[in-house]
C-alpha cells in the first residue's frame, strides 16, 4: 500500500513538472515534441520500404527462365509441376507476360500471401487453381473510381471478366495477379521466376538443370542463390537511412531528457531535501519522459496516417497492414524509454541533485 501511495505521489510530481514546463517553457516543450514526432514519422515512412527491401534481399534460391516464343498450352504447367516436386519448399512463382501482349495481368502463386502481414483482405490462390480470379496490389485499390474494397466484385481486362478475391501489400509487381495455372493456359509466358524458400542444395540444383535442359520451351535460364541482405546495395541504403533517422531520435531524446532535468533541477533538490530517495527522483524523471515520448510517438503516427492517405494513389505504400507500424512504434518507444531510464539513472548520481543536501 505504501508503495502505491509513493508511486501516486511521484507521478503527481512528474505531471506537475510537465504542467509547469508547458506553462513556463511551452516553446521548448513544443520544439522537443515536434522534433521527436518528425523523427518517428520518418522511421514509419521508411520502415515499409525497409521491410520490402529486406524481404527482397533474403529470398531463397530463384530460378529465372526465359521461354521460347512458341509453347504448347500445357507445357508451362507441366514444367511448374516438375519444379514443384523438388524437395525444397516452393515460396513463390511468377509468370510474366510478353510486353507486346499489353496485358496488366501476371500469373502468381505466393505462399507468403497466406499470412496477415502480406494479405490485407480476402484469400490467397490455391496451388493448381484454374479460375478467372484476381488478387490486387494494394495501391491499385485507391486508383479505382469508387475507392471501395473490391473483394467479390468483377473487373474486366481485354474483354475477360475476373473476380477480385484478395488484396496484398508486399509485391514485386504492382499489378493484378491471376492463378498461375489459369495464366499458363490463357496467356503467353515470356519469363518464369520460380523461388524456393531456402537455398538449393547442389543435388537439387542438378535436378533443376536436368529438368530445364530437357525441356524444349526454355530458351535460357539462371539459378540465383539467396543474398545476404547486408550485401544488397538497396537494402544497405535503406538501412543506413533508417539508422540515421533513429540516431536523430536518440539525439532528440537526449536533449529532451537533459533540458527537462536541467529545467527542474531546483525541484529535484527540494525533493531530495524533503526526503525523496534517488529512486523516487529517478522515477519522477522517467515518468516525465514517458509522457513526452508517448505523446510524440502518437503524433508521429497521426502524421504518417495523414501522409499515407495522401500518397496512396502514387503507389508509394509498401505495407498496408498497420500492425507492422504499431510494432515499429512500440520498438521506438521502448528504445527511447530505455535510453531515458539510463540517463535518469546517471543524472541522480551527480551532485546536481544532492548538492543542496550537503
What would your notes on this structure say?
Helix 1 packs across helix 9. A hairpin with a 2-residue loop joins strand 6 and strand 7 (160-168). The chain is built from eleven helices and ten strands. It is of the alpha+beta class. The protein is elongated and about 90 Å long. Strands 1, 2, 3, 4, 5, 6, 7, 8, 9 and 10 form a ten-stranded mixed sheet that branches. The protein has helices at residues 2-24, 26-57, 75-84, 138-143, 180-186, 202-213, 233-263, 265-273, 278-311, 323-347, 351-354, and strands at residues 62-67, 90-97, 105-110, 119-122, 133-137, 154-157, 160-168, 176-178, 189-196, 218-224.
Average pLDDT score: 77
Which class do the helix and strand fractions yield?
alpha+beta
- Give the SSE string: HHEHEEEEHEEEHEHEHHHHH
- Give the helix proportion (percent range): 40-55%
| Span of the ends, CA to CA | 31 Å
* Oligomeric organization of the protein chains: single chain
Question: Would you identify the regions where 5 or more consecutive residues have pLDDT less than 50?
Answer: 353-358
Q: How much beta, percentage-wise? A: 15-25%
| Total helical segments | 11
Any idea what the radius of gyration is?
28 Å
Shape: elongated
How many strands in all?
10
Biggest pleated sheet: 10 strands, mixed
Amino acid at each position: 500500500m505504501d508503495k502505491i501511495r509513493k508511486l501516486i505521489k511521484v507521478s503527481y510530481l512528474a505531471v506537475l513538472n510537465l504542467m509547469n514546463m508547458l506553462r513556463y517553457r511551452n516553446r521548448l516543450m513544443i520544439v522537443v515534441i515536434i522534433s521527436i514526432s518528425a523523427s518517428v514519422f520518418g522511421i514509419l515512412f521508411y520502415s515499409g520500404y525497409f521491410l520490402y527491401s529486406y524481404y527482397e534481399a533474403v529470398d531463397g534460391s530463384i530460378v529465372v527462365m526465359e521461354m521460347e516464343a512458341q509453347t504448347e498450352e500445357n507445357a508451362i504447367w507441366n514444367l511448374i509441376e516438375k519444379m514443384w516436386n523438388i524437395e525444397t519448399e516452393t515460396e513463390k512463382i511468377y509468370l510474366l507476360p510478353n510486353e507486346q501482349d499489353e496485358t496488366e495481368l501476371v500469373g502468381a502463386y505466393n505462399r507468403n500471401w497466406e499470412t496477415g502481414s502480406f494479405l490485407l483482405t480476402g484469400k490467397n490462390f490455391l496451388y493448381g487453381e484454374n479460375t478467372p480470379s484476381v488478387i490486387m496490389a494494394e495501391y491499385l485499390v485507391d486508383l479505382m473510381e469508387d475507392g471501395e474494397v473490391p473483394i467479390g466484385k468483377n473487373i474486366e481486362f481485354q474483354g475477360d471478366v475476373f473476380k477480385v478475391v484478395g488484396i496484398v501489400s508486399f509485391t514485386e509487381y504492382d499489378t493484378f495477379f491471376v492463378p498461375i495455372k489459369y495464366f499458363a493456359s490463357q496467356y503467353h509466358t515470356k519469363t518464369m521466376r520460380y523461388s524456393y524458400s531456402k537455398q538449393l542444395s547442389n543435388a537439387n540444383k542438378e535436378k533443376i538443370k536436368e529438368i530445364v535442359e530437357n525441356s524444349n520451351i526454355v530458351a535460357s535460364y539462371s539459378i540465383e542463390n539467396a543474398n545476404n541482405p547486408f550485401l544488397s546495395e538497396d537494402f544497405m541504403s535503406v538501412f543506413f537511412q533508417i539508422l540515421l533517422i533513429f540516431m536523430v531520435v536518440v539525439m532528440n531524446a537526449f536533449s529532451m531528457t537533459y533540458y527537462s532535468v536541467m529545467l527542474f533541477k531546483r525541484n529535484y533538490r527540494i525533493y531530495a531535501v524533503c526526503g525523496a530517495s534517488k529512486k523516487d527522483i529517478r522515477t519522477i524523471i522517467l515518468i516525465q519522459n514517458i509522457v513526452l515520448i508517448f505523446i510524440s510517438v502518437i503524433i508521429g503516427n497521426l502524421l504518417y496516417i495523414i501522409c499515407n492517405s495522401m500518397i496512396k494513389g502514387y503507389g508509394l505504400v509498401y505495407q498496408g497492414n498497420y500492425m507492422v507500424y504499431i510494432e515499429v512504434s512500440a520498438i521506438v518507444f521502448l528504445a527511447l524509454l530505455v535510453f531515458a531510464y539510463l540517463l535518469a539513472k546517471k543524472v541522480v548520481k551527480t551532485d546536481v541533485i544532492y548538492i543542496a543536501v550537503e
